[in-house]
Amino acid sequence: MAKSKNTKTPGLTGLVDVLSPQALDFGPRQITFGEQLARVLAITGYPPRVGPAWLARVAGMPGVVASIHVTPTDPANLVLSINRAIGEYTGRLELGGNALVMQRTEQALKDAQELLRKIDQEQQQVFYVTVVLLVLAPDQETLDRRTRQVEAALAAAGMRGRVAVFRQEEGLKAAGPWAVLPPGIKEAGARNMPAETVAASFPFTASGINDGSGVVLGRDRDGGLVLMDIWQRGGDRTNSNWTVLAKPGAGKSFAVKMLILRELARGARVIIIDPEREYREMCRLLNGAWINCAGGKGRINPLQVRPLAPDPDQDDEQDGEDDIDLKELREARAQGALALHLHVLKTFFRLYLRDLADIERVVLQKALREVYKQANITWDTDPAAVLPGDWPTFTLLYQYVAGQAQKDPETWKRLALFLEETVEGADASLWNGPTTVNHDSDLVVLDVHDLQNADDTVRRAQYFNVLSYAWHLIEKDRQERTLLVVDEAWILVDPQTPQTLTFLRDTSKRIRKYMGGLVVISQNVVDFLAPEVARHGQALLDNPTYKLLLAQGEKDLEAITQLMNLSEAEHDLLASAKRGEGLLVAGSQRVQVRIEAAPYEMPYFTGGGQ
Fold first, then answer.
1. What is residue 180's predicted lDDT score, i.e. its pLDDT?
2. 285 vs 267: CA distance, rounded Å
3. Could you tell me if 132 and 175 are in contact, meaning their C-beta atoms sit under 8 angstroms apart?
4. Domains of the chain (ranges plus CATH)?
5. What is the pTM (predicted TM-score) of this model?
6. 3-state secondary structure at position 44
7. Is 212 left (phi over 0), alpha (psi -120 to 50) or beta?
8. Mean pLDDT of 217-235
9. What is the pLDDT of residue 462?
10. 3-state secondary structure of 584
11. Is the model's pLDDT at 580 over the cut of 90?
């Protein structure tokens, strides 16, 4: 049965009501859209020569919508018209006149001859082109100001723009996305242009980043959205790692928190090492797991061996084949979980007990092997089968060393004195006892803030201990997208113990094979480039595909300029950038960026990053 002509579709009617303005009124020189005002202009004059993207400046101005109408013409009729024009210009030149008229006529003749050459010799198609500009504004004052700015920009480019007086309704039709060009507007603005000029008119000059999916980081210099999918790999985007560098107060915490929030919304897991307690409130609001790893309830026993995950590096033997540290790590891995963990403990004790002599480090390794043996932990033991309470503790290690010190005080006594602090001193609450950290959350914050006034050796050792534990969490699940955020990474930089940066650099290299990304945040770039650690520090800064550089201090800026070969314009940008402004690098692309968050996200950015 046929539908009645009067039948209405309720859903469509409602949509039309939503999209339609509350009021639409056409005046002689402007239009009223509800609470918005608009004005239509047509470009009526063009310069004899134009460059690429010659409409870009005007089309990119705030509140301006540009509509370009292109209509093919008949070349034969156009050639006849050009020939007549050439004859007319030649006649005027022969008659003579004042200098200004002669100059303009001569230029018009050259333009006509050049157009004829392009049509005849280059076989270029010629089009009628009409450019209509719709200027939008919230009030009358802004509308008038924007109109003057558009007219001034056109004049500066050698063009002329005129308001479509008493033709605003026709102009709106021409400016809208309906491919309608009323005769009155076409008559006022249509001009002949060869194909190359038409092609050069398209104002698509933005060099921004738009992956079509991912998270919005902010806006580029042209006001376009910076939309990135860091899990998209290919070409020069080989990993999902970030380096975020900025001086204090430049907005790095704000940017990272926004990235975390939006990646969580996309289903990623995020693990944060937080030395400044900047993420606790955000974690609470998101129902994440906040763990105090600085003497609170969140103890991580450094002597607990982590299960050995399958090594994805076996799939890529060339990755780091010339790297001595990575080779040693693989050799230890080949011997089993205990051998690999003893390798990690070497770095831990180098950070914690910096003053040990070489012989004392050797006997410490011997003591560790004996303690594991006493706990029935062998080279073949599966760590997953051992309960947290069954692992050796610092009490057992100290008791063994103290016993040896009674037999051979010259070799063991100093080591026993150093280890006594881990059993009876302030450091006992950090490490002496079974691991108590347990969680099941997509957001995990490992907080070490309470160590900010502790000795550097303790702070660095615990930071490294927490970092190695976080890496273990990533190794457990190779299929889940995980971001490991290492805030204030400069804390790990120790010229006397470059192995800490080696561990972090190796994490940066290997995490991509575990569906992960490493986010390194720091304010002291020069620390990473000190001669003692430059080999690993520079690699750590170079490896990430994504680099966010906000405002920099003078020394750091000079170091970054050399490291990343910044242009003069990029150098000046970072020297004078406002809060939240900087340079974003994604593979080989570099864009100026302004970090922006939605109003509903702001409550999550408490503390640092407000």
1. 92
2. 17
3. yes
4. 22-201 (no CATH), 235-298+438-610 (3.40.50.300), 301-434 (1.10.8.730)
5. 0.70
6. strand
7. left
8. 89
9. 92
10. strand
11. yes
